[in-house]
Description:
- By secondary structure, the chain is an alpha/beta fold.
- The protein has one domain: 3-Layer(aba) Sandwich (Rossmann fold), CATH 3.40.50.
- The chain has helices at 14-25, 32-41, 45-56, 62-73, 91-104, 118-132, 139-162, 175-187; strands at residues 3-7, 28-31, 82-85, 110-115, 166-170.
- The longest helix has 24 residues, at 139-162.
- It binds adenosine monophosphate (AMP).
Amino acid sequence: MSRLLIMGPPGAGKGTQAASLAERIGAAHISTGDIFRENVSQQTELGRTAQQYMDAGEYVPDEVTNAMVRDRLGQDDAGNGFILDGYPRTLDQVDTLDEILAGLGVQLDGVVSLVVDTDEVVARLLKRAETSGRSDDTEDVIRHRQEVYHAETAPLLSVYTERGLVREVDGLGEVDEVARRIDAALDAPG
Ligand code: AMP
């Protein structure tokens, strides 16, 4: 399995798990949130567009995000496999991803769904807020991001479940323990 999505509510530990899984399987870790944050810090035009949405806990418009991912998936390192972290987040992005992958002649191998309790992740994010310096780590924005996730992104899991791609993993626990669960879920027969 080398072409994967990782999904879960904000604060579920997606970024940490995606980075270490990518290293274990030699795939590119593609985090749309990280790419946006890099652009914000370098004050590119993309960064200026993205920042206002990110600060409000809203999604960056699909056309902006889709174009960025299309470009990133076309780069050489993604040819050896990829873990998409934080994309797709809307049904429109699912359609675009299908189209990008069809154009590249490849298919998704699986979707890791990190399952965590909302109160637990809000508590985690409030803790992260004390040290992260992320401008979207304030209590109002944290709660709003959970609502947006449940309204817009959680429904994507049904789409991928229907395709038989989803592997649920309990996201609560130590980082290494969750990593072991992910490996086991990916190794298990589909
Ligand atoms: P993340 O680090 O994945 O939690 O993303 C941080 C923020 O970046 C999100 O709250 C959105 O504002 C923006 N973002 C990241 N990925 C996407 C996406 N696929 N679609 C729209 N906005 C996104």
